[in-house]
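Recap quiz, item 2
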Amino acid sequence: MAKQRPPWFVPRDAASVRYAFFLSHVAEDSEEVQQLASTIHAFSGRGGRTPLTCFLDVNNWPIGCENTSVIKAFLLKSAYCVVWVTPAYLQSVRGWVWMELAYAELIELSLNAALLDLRHPYIVPVFRNVTVNQLERTPLFDYWQRQLVVPNKEYPLHELAKKLVEFHEQEGLH
Amino acid sequence: MTWTPEQLEQIPEVYRDFMVVLKPVLDSKAPGRVLRINGIPFGMVYEALSNRYDYDIEQVRQLAHNLCREGWIEEDNLGFFTPTAKGEDLIRALSGSEDGVRKTVPPLPAF
């Protein structure tokens, strides 16, 4: 008999979404990702548009809350999860980014529940200076063919920010 | 290839569903699409079909193998699936696009 809903369904209330992107990254890339968030904010606000805001741990972390609760809550408050994959990301042993990816995957599965195809991508990977060989046997491997930009090609931050803003404008919130 | 609704119905549902899972590859080829999806990993196909049919990994692998053998899909060297040209035609037809589906009139029964 057909099943209609995946067993690990995560409901998300579209009205609670406050951030355009949850920027999942490791501390080693923090400076670059902060610049990305600023550039997204500046570019998306062009021509009087409402600027897009990103959830970034260094700026938005509620003090005193349990870490995993914050990650879950703010993933749900974000329209999309950008996974900033770098050599430092792959070498990190702290594990927070992998936890974020796992929660993000559940949200994506839930957004597409009852659909067969991926109509609502939630996870947006950005591969920076990593090869597919480095991703083998990691959960990120499945995202290699999901490309905002050509992997392994050098893109300046402002170009990546522009791509993300265009993606957000194209997809809208689902 | 032009499909008739009757021909589409002759394809077992699970194969039709498999092809629909690959639709994002087709959709993301549209000019101007920002996020390109160049292939669908086996895990995503398995997730979709096992939820709907309770198939195990081997059974979904067998479906993929059958579709590859008949030239509807291709599997790249990394294990990602993409529809072939005729597979894309089929997906368009299955997705309700009027292009590629030839409407037929019903036969008139004799009274």
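Residues 14-171 of chain A form a domain with the Rossmann fold fold (CATH 3.40.50.10140).
The mean pLDDT of chain A is 91.
End of item.
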